[in-house]
Amino acid sequence: MRRDFEAPGRSPVFARQAAVATSHPLATSAALEVLQSGGNAVDAAIAASAVQAVVEPQMTGIGGDCFAIVTEPDGRMAGFNGSGGAPKALNPELLAEKGVDELTPTSPHSVTVPGAVRAWETLLKAHGTRDFKTLFKRAIEYAESGFPVAPRVQHDWAENVARLNTTPATKAAYLPGGEAPVVGQIVKFPQLAETLKAIGSGGADAFYTGPVAEDIVSALKGLGGVMTKEDLAACHTTAVSPIMRDYRGYTIAELPPNGQGVIALVILGILERFDLASLDPLGPERLHLEMEAARIAYGVRDKFVTDPGYMDICHSGLIDEAYIDKLAAMIHPHQKLAEIPGTSLAPQTDTIYLTVVDKDGLSISFINSIFNAFGSGILAPQSGVLLHNRGAVFKSKPGHANTIAGGKRPMHTIIPAMGLKDGAPWLSFGVMGGHYQACGHAHLITNIVDYGMDVQMAIDFPRMFFDLNTHALEAEKMIPQSTVDGLISKGHEVKRAAGAIGGSQAIMIDRAKKLLIAGSDPRKDGHAAGY
């Protein structure tokens, strides 16, 4: 296995009883605290996510959406779709009347009903052992008394000052003194602390009805939005069955649409038709195949994947072996395909992913997001709820799979995943990075299965993606120039990515050795721990 890239030098975490991997040390600490006090994996995940909603406001929050897969030790899985729909009144005709041609990231019409809090409650009722009041302890403490801004968080904060000037309320809360906070500065969100306390006492209804809901509706209405209290009150989490496909002896499980998880399975299906293990994992031949498979699969995504109530085909048809054979046959091993269906989806999004496995073998693969950095930039001022902008992926004109409609859920990029071996849990994993996530799932799995990497090396290994508009490839700085030159010789346009492409957390379950092996992404300040 080649290691001649600028590896971060982090080792995986080995544990015997429980393990946690999140994108922030304070969230990992909160999850461990819950586990060591007798809580289970689901309890720990909710506690960690609540902390991240405070200390990583650029990535996640209670104004976003959530998806999760919970897996029992015997391999039984339950999926949860905690995404909200568009306001009932919103449709292409109304947008046309308002002169809206495009759902921009800071538009009030890009705000769909936030589904995260309802999903958290649903998860706890189905699989948890603790209540919100107990699990929100650390999140409330950080919001009320303050938390030190971490370096990665500060970097993102400073890059998004323009977004944080969207409304006076947002500016007041997130730009103290008119500037982004510096590393180590103590930041407080007192209004958010009070909202978390209200949810702790009154459950999810305290978010979707009453003063918090009124504050959200008022903030959006003041900017021309049409969300109502009835839209919020109707929010529900959907229980779904994960969709599965085998990859070289391992079963990979993803959630069905409206998420893009099925596209990760399509990419893996295409790549399974090629002998990846014979190729240099960091060479142009392997990355050419991966990028071509991704470009084809994302063309499929943009044509078909949306709210399942609006899909023209059943998602199972997208992983039909004959269909994948047809897609794989499109790839030329030495030449870039000239034409693949394009997309106009926005390429940059922000998300947190975390995973927990507890002492009883219960595992959760969990993802929560406000989509773009700091979401829509619209803050409900009295409740401190920063609202996501997931609706920005909708099309404002008729005729597209993701044309906006009242109550419709948008196509979602955030996708938790689970791997099984011989029917038992093997790998709980997920990738951050918006549209990259489906490609990132395939990259992580092939790193482990085809190249024998341990979980941390598979996360650290250099990544590549493509611009969704131009299809030019973007290469992380750790990819050798010789590989870039090889890709150019195959017809690709290649440019260096400005920073990390996505991020990942994963926990491998080694049943033979009775070990948990956790990895986290140093490029995203990830932090894994166990005991």
Explain this structure to me?
By secondary structure, the protein is α+β, with helices and mostly antiparallel strands. It contains 18 helices and 21 strands. Strands 1-20-19-15-14-9-8 form a seven-stranded antiparallel beta sheet. Strands 7-4-3-11-10-2-21 form a seven-stranded antiparallel beta sheet, with helices on one face. A hairpin with a 5-residue loop joins strand 3 (65-71) and strand 4 (77-82). Helix 13 (261-271) crosses helix 16 (437-449) and helix 14 (284-304) packs across helix 18. The chain is globular, with a radius of gyration of 22 Å. Residues 341-348 have low confidence and may be disordered.
In short, what is this structure?
This protein has 531 residues and is of the alpha+beta class.
Largest sheet: 7 strands, antiparallel
Compute the number of strand runs: 21
Integer-rounded radius of gyration: 22 Å
The proportion of residues in beta strands is 15-25%
| Helix content class | 25-40%
Please state how the strands of the largest beta sheet are arranged side by side: 1-20-19-15-14-9-8
**How far apart are the first and last residues' alpha carbons, in Å?**
29 Å
Give the overall shape. Answer: globular
Question: What average pLDDT do the residues reach?
Answer: 94
Number of H/I helices: 18
Estimated structural class: alpha+beta
Unreliable residue runs: 341-348
